[in-house]
Design a protein that fits this description.
Blueprint (H helix, E strand, L loop, with lengths): L3 H8 L6 H17 L4 E7 L7 E7 L10 E5 L2 E7 L9 E7 L6 E6 H11 L2 E3 L9
Parallel strand pairs: 1-7
Antiparallel strand pairs: 1-4, 2-3, 2-5, 5-6
Length: about 140
């Protein structure tokens, strides 16, 4: 049989004080945020003529194999891309390429350090290539 004394004992469970719980939650959020190695990079890439295909790749310094080109869309392109900024070494190479049938491809390359510096200074990566008609 359960007595009033037993019910009082069941109600008084050990619980974390609210400030300690909030501090633990805040600390875990800060640690998880600090471990994130990916960030969104704002891109604005226009081309003349518009409607060109846009791709990019990041060639890592530590690998011997070239990275694949990643399709972003058609120009004009204004959006964000998920780039591994914290894991980028200064010797890595970031390349963007704009292509259109009947025109020569245009490529722009940065070192990892140059790419991140430009983004930090301007808050956006902006590029406007002018495509040249092909003779073929």
């Amino acid at each position: 049989m359960i007595t009033a004394k037993d019910t009082d004992r069941m109600r008084t469970t050990t619980s974390f004080p609210v400030p300690v719980l909030l501090a633990c939650l805040l600390l875990s959020l800060l640690l998880l945020g600090g471990c994130s190695s990916r960030g969104y990079i704002n891109l604005k890439i226009h081309s003349e003529p518009e409607g060109s295909f846009l791709v990019y790749k990041i060639d890592k310094l530590k690998t011997d194999q070239p990275s694949p080109w990643i399709y972003l869309g058609q120009t004009p392109f204004a959006g964000v891309s998920l780039i591994e900024g914290d894991e980028m070494d200064s010797g890595d190479r970031v390349s963007f390429k704009v292509m259109r049938n009947g025109y020569l491809d245009q490529v722009k390359e940065w070192s990892g350090e140059q790419f991140l510096d430009e983004y930090d200074e301007q808050g956006v990566i902006f590029w406007t290539p002018r495509l040249i008609k092909s003779n073929q």
